[in-house]
Amino acid sequence: MKLYSGPLSLFSRKVEIALAEKGLAFERVMVPFSQAEGNFPKHPDVLSANPKGQVPVLVDGDLTLFDSTVINEYLEDAYPDPPILPGSPKMRARCRLLELTADEILLPDVVRLMHRTEPPDPDPAAQRAKEEDAMRAEVDIANRYEALDRQLAGGDHFCGVFTAADIAIFMVMLFAKRLGAPDFGSHDALAAWCARVSDRPSVVQILREVIETDRSLSP
Questions:
Q1: How is the chain split into domains, by residue range?
Q2: pLDDT tens-digit readout, 96-116
Q3: Angle value at C-alpha 60, between 57 and 64, nearest 5 degrees
């Protein structure tokens, strides 16, 4: 099994955590990355597998897949033990909805902070507009965190046990923190959950590598 990944690709890291949780051995190919150009030059195997030219790309025998959600669903079907989805249909639906919330509702707000890792816009008005939008994004992110705190409802994990929902939400929150998003420490349930996830062996290495990458990219 081979995974094409990226050091600051949160979607690739989702797959890496799932593979580690399942105890699956794989060869990891890190694509080139720089702060200025992102994942460039594009890896030819990634370009041939994914029309978007993006990681993650998983190769398992004669099967090649892209998109973190599709890949993790495949891993669950092909290698079901230990699971990263709950057992009941209702809880599986809840898990998938939470993953969707992380990737398509929370993440777009986080993306509005991405300019903080880029050189300032040469147009002062454009730069001010980005900063003003980032302030609005921080309010939206804080509201998302409050809702997530309520959804935990005192549980250790979002779906009772550690699942793909926890992986997706944690990764988006990690990248939000890197970009200076509002602290979630005032939400006790969410803060305790984040600490539990951070201590999982499948996550510890990811955190270490993201921190090392950030250091290497610092001016």
A1: 2-78, 89-217
A2: 999 999 999 999 999 999 988
A3: 45
